[in-house]
Amino acid sequence: MGLLLALAAAVLTVVGISGLRMLRTTGLEDVEEQMRTAVAVEREKGLGPLLDRLGTRFLGLTMRLYGSVRLRRLEEAIRRAGRPDGVTLTVYLRRQAAFVVIGVAVLVLFAILGQPLIGVMMFGLLAGWMRLWLTTAGSRRQAQIESELPDFLDVLGVTVKAGLGFRQAVERVCEFHDGPLAQEMRTSLQEMSVGVSRRQAFVAMRERTRSEGVAAFVTALLQAEELGVPLASALDDIASDVRKDHAQRVRQAAAKAAPKVSLVVTMTIVPGALLLIVASVLLANMDTFRDIL
């Protein structure tokens, strides 16, 4: 009888520990470990591990607050940004929770010191830091894709003219490129290798990148495939159009930058120049001012 009681107690203990672990985890940790690469692990230095340890305690609550719809949108945003620094959905949520906790602590500290407004500003900055970082990384990656696309298409067109098929040509060109555009192309090739059609794979790439240049390339490529246009000449035309669109966007960006440059000049150089002029006038007429005074 005593042996049975001991065995039952051991079973209950194991079940209790397992239940406690299930309550404290989300089930995504194992998936996250499989997705992380050696490079991402190597980058985890400094503040990152501390934020992960702090945010782990609030991971489940953060996921429930986000909800399934917002989590899917967040996962899409992370994929669109190219998973910068190897960040997965779980890592993002952990660090988001950690920044919110730190923001609450800072808010309470400044409230005690009698500066609640500064505390609210710091809390807003910390709470929105991860979203700002992800948006910036996504915009930077999108701009890099836009700049790489014309040259990529030029090389792809030459490779197709050399006699290779489209898929083999893309694989060949991707071997000599390591940017985000080549990564997206490799993803599309992997999808096609498991049975996804070319149309579906490239439409998915267009949705992932949200790039105007990639969207124009995919649309023109699919239209050329439907109309039976020779692939080599179609790629030349697509590369020419994409290059023209890229140049137009660069000109638009330069036009938008002109007012910003004027504002910087007005706010910095002009006051400094006026200060020098006024100081020179005062120094040159110091004796006159003494007589007046």
Condensed summary:
With 293 residues, the chain is an all-alpha fold. The protein has helices at residues 2-24, 29-35, 38-43, 47-56, 59-80, 89-112, 116-127, 129-161, 166-174, 180-193, 198-209, 212-227, 231-284, 286-292.
Task: Give an account of the 3D structure.
- By secondary structure, the protein is mainly α.
- The chain contains 14 helices and no strands.
- The termini are far apart.
Helix content: over 70%
Q: How many helix segments?
A: 14
Please report the total strand number as a whole number.
0
Rg estimate, integer Å? 29 Å
**Beta-strand percentage range:** under 5%
Overall average residue pLDDT: 77
> What's the helix-strand series?
HHHHHHHHHHHHHH
Report the principal-axis shape: flat
Enumerate the spans where pLDDT stays under 50 for 5 or more consecutive residues: 2-12, 14-43
Distance between the termini: 110 Å
Sheet of most strands = none
Question: Helix- and strand-based class?
Answer: mainly alpha
Domain DUF5936: 1-137
Membrane topology: Multi-pass membrane protein
Main location: membrane
Protein name: Type II secretion system F family protein
Characteristics of this structure?
single chain, 293 residues, mainly alpha, 85% helix, 0% strand, transmembrane
What are the SSEs and their pairings?
Elements: H1 2-24, H2 29-35, H3 38-43, H4 47-56, H5 59-80, H6 89-112, H7 116-127, H8 129-161, H9 166-174, H10 180-193, H11 198-209, H12 212-227, H13 231-284, H14 286-292
